[in-house]
Predict the 3D structure of the following.
Amino acid sequence: MLQPFEPFRLMFIEKLIAMKARYLVSQTYTRATGHAEARGKTMILLTDYDHPGSARIHLNAVKHDRYASIVDLENPEHKKKLTEMLSLGSKYLLFWSVVKSKKQLEHRINAQYRDNMRRYIEQYTNWRVGRDLGIRPSVEVTFGELFIILKYSGQTIRLKFEEIERV
């Protein structure tokens, strides 16, 4: 299972505050189950926002999740709890919904999941992509979920990455 996001570090808190991205939406994260540090820990994905309205929209999209909440980095209690979650011995492992390099991730997906994308296109579209044409995905993160955008002959498909993994 592909794990595209960066581990969340203590130093990011002050950087996010400085960038005015003070709102974090938390949710359960399952893509890091193979991560070495993950054994026995609850994995949480954090997504940053600079506006409370945007954070509330995301929270509403994941409200069924038991770990869904809005963390305000300017609220001392929230900041303290987040710091505790990042401490050694914590039962949590936190990830940030950012990728180090979008271009590298797209290259990695194209290299590792090319056959899956081809099978998806053959099964679920009427596209007739020749074997010699490369499929070049682009990636997008929405509400902590990785999406793949495939384009061919003026048509576009946007789907969850997990759909490509399953094919």
Summary: The chain has two domains: 6-96, 102-166. The radius of gyration is 18 Å.
